[in-house]
Write a structure and sequence with these properties.
With 211 residues, the chain is of the alpha+beta class. 27% of the residues lie in helices and 30% in strands. The strands form two sheets. Strands 1, 2, 5, 6, 7, 8, 9, 10, 11, 12 and 13 form an eleven-stranded antiparallel sheet that branches.
């Protein structure tokens, strides 16, 4: 049996399990990026508001605090990227997860003042890929020291530090913009958030699951 491929994945998987994020370079050509941006702008009228003001642990394993933003359903350009062989190959290589398949995607629309409080994604989303579609999109909050934290622990964090926590252990992640790369992160395992936006911004997201 040839174990060379699985052995080669071990360092990447170890790094992924430790850090929960990686920037994947050279997977998004400029013309394709510009097409995704144009498509998102054309579909702004399809945006559906996503607003809730409570904190909850959901049945599918995610944790959420108050949020105010909107979601634009993916158009064919973004959907095609999710199934792009080059992107899937690069994601599998850089995360060390050999069986990733697309699960879904959307464009998140933030108007001035919109936000997402600290939360985790569905446990079915093993890898979330994010691409900033506007240059002014601020970094997202990131809490690697709370990797795989129980919802009760996250609830305590919210009680003590609020929905945009700061201090020791809390940091942030930039999203690539127009440089050919994408940000992959384990949003189901590492809590993250997005502070109030200073101006309109858009972020394309795609999720992938491990079979």
């Amino acid at each position: 049996m040839n174990t060379g491929h699985s052995i080669a994945q071990l360092p990447a998987r170890a790094a992924w399990d430790e850090k929960g994020t990686v920037v994947v370079p050279d997977v998004l050509e400029l013309d394709r990026f510009e097409a995704i941006v144009a498509e998102a702008n054309e579909r702004v009228g399809l945006a559906t508001a996503h607003i809730h003001d409570h904190t909850a642990a959901h049945r599918e394993g995610s944790f959420a605090t108050p949020v105010h933003c909107a979601f634009i359903p993916p158009g064919p350009v973004l959907e095609n990227l999710a199934y792009d062989k080059g992107l899937l190959t690069a994601l599998r290589k850089t995360t060390g997860i050999p069986r990733l398949i697309p699960r879904g995607g959307a464009v998140v629309l933030y108007e001035k003042g919109d936000f997402q409080g600290i939360h985790t994604d569905s446990v079915k989303s093993t890898v979330t890929v994010a691409i900033a579609l506007t240059e002014n999109l601020p970094p997202m909050g990131w809490a690697p020291h709370l990797h795989n934290a129980h919802p009760d622990q996250l609830g305590e964090v919210v009680s003590e530090r609020g929905i945009f926590p700061s201090g020791e252990g809390f940091t942030s992640l930039e999203h690539p913009y127009g440089d050919g790369s994408v940000r992959a992160f384990a949003g189901y395992a590492v809590p993250h958030w997005r502070p109030r936006q200073p101006a309109r911004g858009m972020l394309a997201t795609m999720s992938f699951m491990d079979l």
